[in-house]
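Customer escalation, tier 2.

The customer says the design service returned an amino acid string that "doesn't look like it belongs to this structure." They asked us to rerun it and document both sides in this ticket. The original structure tokens are below, unchanged.
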């Protein structure tokens, strides 16, 4: 998926906004876009190819209820 960066965007912000997560996809996106890591902030309007996320392996956390 190709997206355009907004002013002040970073790679992790793009991944979070469009894919809803950063774990694993930031690294894959940087591999797809050689030279993207040269700057921490992307140029406004810069075209970025986002990596397709792998199958989600979410973990469930047990929660503690303090009040009933």
């Amino acid at each position: 998926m190709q997206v355009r960066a907004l002013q002040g965007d970073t790679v992790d912000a793009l991944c979070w906004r469009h894919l809803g997560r950063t774990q694993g996809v930031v690294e894959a996106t940087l591999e797809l876009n050689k030279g993207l890591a040269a700057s921490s902030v992307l140029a406004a309007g810069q075209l970025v190819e986002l990596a397709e996320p792998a199958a989600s392996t979410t973990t469930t956390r047990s929660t503690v209820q303090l009040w009933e």
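Tier 2 assessment: The sequence is consistent with the input. The two ends are 45 Å apart (CA to CA). The CA atoms of residues 29 and 67 lie 43 Å apart. Sent an explanation to the customer and offered a walkthrough call.
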